Amino acid sequence: MVNAISSEMPGEQLSSESRYRRTTEYLFALGELLEGRSINLEGEFLQLHIDPPRISGQGFGCPPIYFGGLSEAARDCAAASADVYLMWPDTTAKIASLVLDLTQRAQRYGRPMSFGWRSHVIVRETEREAREAARRLLSRLDPVTGDAIRAKSLDSTSTGVNRQSELRGSSDDEGYIEQNLWTGVGRARSGAGIAIVGDPDQVLAKLNELTDAGVSAFILSGYPHLKECDLFAKYVLPKINHGPLTLAHTATTLD
Q1: Are 203 and 121 in contact (CB under 8 A)?
Q2: What is the pLDDT of residues 151-183, one digit of tens each?
């Protein structure tokens, strides 16, 4: 699979709208070439006239393209270009509304769309133990240090990061925005700043709830990553019925 990120090029500063229009052109060109088709493109950013590549007909094709972004321009780019719209954590109601919105946008392009969820997981044998592990994870974090970590990120002013900050601001005293959804991770990192926290049945219930909302791919991580992978494998994987639910793990570390 390909995870596409729309970022600025070195030495350039484009508006968000322009960056996503450029990304749309690049992803179109990439997809056409990997599908073995020629390109005759006179775009805003790309002018390409390329014969079909020699790998044409070998059966490789374009791998699934994952893409995320919450702004209007990002959503339009995803609808035109992506196979999987990858979302940072939010309330289940918000996720359902995003699924509906992106499905409708993709339909206007005559394209299908699948949906992914990217978050952290803290699972323990009991909910009390899971919540204690979450508290312990940040027990020695100085708030000023956390602010500095987030400010260093290149996406610190993006629509998606702002939404994660908004969710932290609306959480309860322990950082939960809804049942078993904890915003504390976002105090020490930018990007996906929410974890599913609970016992095995609660974690599975949240995954199933998101599946019912339209999510079919999950990218999950934890701190420390290998330990949390082992705990997820021990407590949650045996409970998952093999079906439409796809779980992929991505390594993440906390410096």
Answers
A1: yes
A2: 666 555 678 788 888 888 888 888 899 989 998
Going from the C-alpha of 85 to that of each of 36, 66, 99, 163, the distances in angstroms are: 24, 6, 9, 17
Question: How far is residue 218 from each of residues 54, 98, 103, 110, 215, measured CA to CA in Å?
Answer: 34, 16, 18, 25, 8
- Whole-model pTM: value is 0.86
CATH of domain 118-249: 3.20.20.30
d(CA 221, CA 252): 6
The domain segmentation of the chain, as residue ranges, is 2-116, 118-249
Considering only CA atoms, which of 116, 112, 60 is closest in space to residue 89? Answer: 116
Between CA 99 and CA 107, with CA 101 as vertex, the angle to 5 degrees is: 100
Could you tell me which residues are beta bridge partners of residue 42?
Answer: 47
